[in-house]
Amino acid sequence: MRFAPDALATMRRALLRRGQDLAELLAQVLAGKQPPSLAALLAEQPGKRPEEVLRDALAQVDARRALLDADDDRFGRCDVCGADLGEAAVREVAWADRCAAHATR
User: How many domains does the chain have?
Assistant: First the structure.
């Protein structure tokens, strides 16, 4: 196990909180609203519809949660090169799936 149990619990809570926040944003967008907190996510992926951006973000969170729940060593590593993202970074952004070199999709 690469992370201590308390770190894993913190990361799991962060993933669940992020998933809930994204699901709430998606519900608002599907209801025809444009919540202000959506602007940052849309800026990261120009040209995509808001619901598409949110569904992609939810899929990313779900994929990270599945790796964490399976105690898969790929959790906390870059999906492209396998570099360790570091515990501090993963604690801050538990849904991260890319290192700085591969952060742009």
Answer: 1
